[in-house]
């Protein structure tokens, strides 16, 4: 690969509803708390995973999710490849539900790695690890940061091409 060239694994193109049926996202609530959401395009439904259930009331969650249940159908219609595909999508809002069974609970301040790990496990069809518990939130956060950084080293190099003098700092 030549300097400045984008690695092929960083630029693969996939299309919602054609190549991609599920969308996962961490969502921040009032700069205080992270939840995870799973958007199922074929089911037109969003599942919310919250590791501190009492932090967001049902009314507050309705307010947060209103944006997603209306925005996702709109984006699907606007981002389709052809008019033929546009016909299969409607602007009818998605439904959503907060899942509580089997969602591990954490301490305040540890919701961010829990949200990311829950997304990872669900996307890969894995069970949430028992070792991921309230007592070891700090070490989990550090390990996840290293894992994320090491996952795509070539993308880090590409992203930092204009800051080459600092690239070696992170290795």
From TrEMBL:
<feature type="domain" description="Ubiquitin-like protease family profile">
    <location>
        <begin position="1"/>
        <end position="122"/>
    </location>
</feature>
<dbReference type="InterPro" id="IPR003653">
    <property type="entry name" value="Peptidase_C48_C"/>
</dbReference>
<dbReference type="Pfam" id="PF02902">
    <property type="entry name" value="Peptidase_C48"/>
</dbReference>
<dbReference type="InterPro" id="IPR038765">
    <property type="entry name" value="Papain-like_cys_pep_sf"/>
</dbReference>
<keyword id="KW-0378">Hydrolase</keyword>
<keyword id="KW-0645">Protease</keyword>
<comment type="similarity">
    <text>Belongs to the peptidase C48 family.</text>
</comment>
<keyword id="KW-0788">Thiol protease</keyword>
<protein>
    <recommendedName>
        <fullName>Ubiquitin-like protease family profile domain-containing protein</fullName>
    </recommendedName>
</protein>
